[in-house]
Amino acid sequence: MWIIKKMILLFASLMCLVAVAAQNQPNKYGVVVPENYISKLDVVYARESGWTGKMDLYIPKSSAKPVPVVINIHGGGWARNSKEKERGFGSLFKHNVAVANMSYRLTGTATAPAAVEDVRSVLTYLVRHAHRLNIDPDKIILMGSSAGGHLALMGGYLQNNNIYDRNKRCLRNLNVAAVIDKCGVADMVAFTVGGMYYKSAVRWLGERINDIEFIETVSPMTYVNAHTPPTLMLHGDRDDVVPYQQSQDLKAALDDNHVYNRLVTLHGAGHSGHDQATKARMRDEIIRFLTDLQLIDHE
Fold it and tell me: What's the whole-number average pLDDT of the chain?
């Protein structure tokens, strides 16, 4: 009899291990989703001239109150990469934060300001469906790296300016809670005009490259004012793609307008390919920033 009991216990233990292993398996896009989260992959947020804008939503299954949401925007010079290559949401999941991991129109599909319009469309979708998704529309955070950092700044800094909104009436009372900019472009004019221009940005601007007034409309610096959302900047001081000076200048503008901000200098770091220690520091700084703003709770 004791042999049977032992076998039953062993079988139960094995089933538990299988269940745990299944929970830790990444989904088809390589994201490891906790058991207490629900995944909604390839949610359509917009359609434009044959192109379909999609995002992946990761939302806590049961929360007594609406949760914060981070809109994650990939980099790639406005011309490459995709949401399917984005990972590393574990620290956000641990703090009960929803994630909207979005795609946007790349240069080969549409030039500026298409990608900005797409970010604003995701904002529109989340605001309109906030109740159904159980997310807090007053705790929307935009986050991106490189080109994605620029788009995060643009999406947040526009606030209620509907210049690049498909639906001009939806975001009248938008209140972006924070922006997290990882080595993004803050001053598009400085980045595309003159001797230090960046070819990918020039291609993204397309036929409007000589239209300074237009370039200013897709430059986050243009919109900095006293109502700009709190901003966290993470930037390597050896970045040879987006100059570290971009974040220094943005910080100066935010300080001048008394906007809460923090510039984290990643000493010795370049634009990408960060080592594990640098990645861990970036994750910690992001959580600390959101905690200080009381957008997420302490562990």
Answer: 91
- State the Cα–Cα distance between residues 299 and 291, nearest whole angstrom: 10
- pTM for the full predicted model: 0.91
What is the predicted pLDDT for the residue at 171?
66
**Domain 34-292, CATH homologous superfamily name and number:** Alpha/Beta hydrolase fold, catalytic domain (3.40.50.1820)
**What is the pLDDT at residue 254?**
98
* 206-229 tens-digit pLDDT: 999 999 999 999 999 999 999 999
User: Per-residue pLDDT tens for 162-220?
Assistant: 999 987 666 678 889 999 999 999 999 999 986 667 889 999 999 999 999 999 999 99
Give yes or no for residue 27 having a pLDDT over 70: yes
Q: How many CB atoms lie within 10 A of CB 295?
A: 20
DSSP codes, the chain: -HHHHHHHHHHHHHHHHHHHHHHTSB-TTS-B--TTEEEEEEEEEEEETTEEEEEEEEEES--SS-EEEEEEE--STTTS--GGG----HHHHHTT-EEEEE----TTT--TTHHHHHHHHHHHHHHHTHHHHTEEEEEEEEEEETHHHHHHHHHHHTTT--TT-SSTTTTTT--EEEEEEES--S-HHHHHSSTT--HHHHHHHGGGTT-HHHHHHT-GGGG-STTPPPEEEEEETT-SSS-HHHHHHHHHHHHHTT--EEEEEETT--SS---HHHHHHHHHHHHHHHHHTTSS---
Domain boundary assignment for the chain: 34-292
